[in-house]
Structures are given as structure tokens and as C-alpha cells.
TrEMBL record:
Keywords: Heme, Iron, Membrane, Metal-binding, Transmembrane, Transmembrane helix. Residues 63-148 form the Cytochrome c domain. PROSITE patterns: CYTC. The keyword Iron applies. One of its GO terms (molecular function) is metal ion binding. SUPFAM superfamilies: Cytochrome c. InterPro entries: Cyt_c-like_dom, Cyt_c-like_dom_sf. The chain crosses the membrane at residues 6-23. This is Cytochrome c2. The keyword Nucleotide-binding does not apply.
Length: 150
């Protein structure tokens, strides 16, 4: 009886080990492909991030030489461009190059009032939780004026 238990245990260990190696051999290439795919995706994401950071740095370089810096600091470029100041941003909102001239006609209030209390639903929600300070508002107005004069 003792020999039978020993033989059973040896067979069990050998079978378990063989099964492990067989399953690993069958699934091995799939695991490697999955790992390589994950590495490729991660590498592509890092490259995309580096490209975006480079574009932002270039925009900041362009804007740091003029009044457009405020648009980068406040995140306006996530939705807006100011092409007159060489600031390329998102396409969700309009280009702000002529906003200094057009806001009152479009929204019915002077630019400074619009920046304090926007009359558009989108801008109300954007600035509502994080309103511009007086200095920021003055910087935006100066930048928009400079953009409209170019």
C-alpha cells in the first residue's frame, strides 16, 4: 500500500509538471504577443504625449513673446485658437482673433462684462467655476485687442 501511494504521488507530480509545461507551451506565444502589443501601445502613447508636450511647448514659446500667454495659462487653447497671435488650439470654440471687436455684437455685452459674466451657456459653465481674476481679465482683453489689430 505504501508503494502505491508513493507511485501515485510521483505520477501526480510528473503529470502536473508536464501539464504545466504543455499549457505554457501552447499559451506561450499568445502571452508574448499580448505583452508585445501592450508594450507597443504604451510606446505609442508615450510618443503621442511627447508630441503633444512639444506642441504645447512650441505654443508657449510663441505666446511667451506676446500677449497670448494668458490663453495658455488659463487653458483657453483647449477649445480656442488665436491665429492672429500664432496660437493654435482646439477647434471646439471659435478663433478669438476678432473677439475684441465681435463680442459685444454677438453677445450683447462689452467684452469685459462678457468675461466677468458670460452670456453664452458654454462659457458660463467654463468660467463659472473658475472665474478670471481682474489681472487675468485685463491680460485677456489686452491680448484680444492686440490680436484684432493684426
Amino acid at each position: 500500500m505504501g508503494k502505491n501511494i508513493i507511485i501515485f504521488l510521483i505520477c501526480f507530480i510528473v503529470a502536473f509538471g508536464a501539464g504545466y509545461f504543455i499549457i505554457d507551451a501552447i499559451q506561450g506565444p499568445e502571452k508574448n504577443e499580448t505583452a508585445q502589443s501592450a508594450e507597443t501601445t504604451e510606446s505609442a502613447e508615450r510618443t503621442d504625449l511627447a508630441v503633444k508636450e512639444g506642441a504645447i511647448a512650441q505654443q508657449q514659446g510663441d505666446a511667451s513673446n506676446n500677449e497670448g500667454r494668458i490663453f495658455l495659462q488659463r487653458g483657453c487653447v483647449s477649445c480656442h485658437s488665436v491665429s492672429a497671435l500664432n496660437i493654435q488650439g482646439g477647434a471646439t470654440g471659435p478663433d478669438l482673433s476678432q473677439a475684441y471687436v465681435n463680442v459685444e455684437g454677438k453677445h450683447g455685452v462689452p467684452l469685459e462684462e462678457f468675461l466677468k459674466k458670460p452670456t453664452s451657456a458654454v462659457m458660463s459653465s467654463v468660467l463659472g467655476g473658475d472665474p478670471l481674476t481682474d489681472d487675468e481679465r485685463a491680460a485677456v482683453i489686452a491680448a484680444l485687442k492686440a490680436a484684432s489689430e493684426k
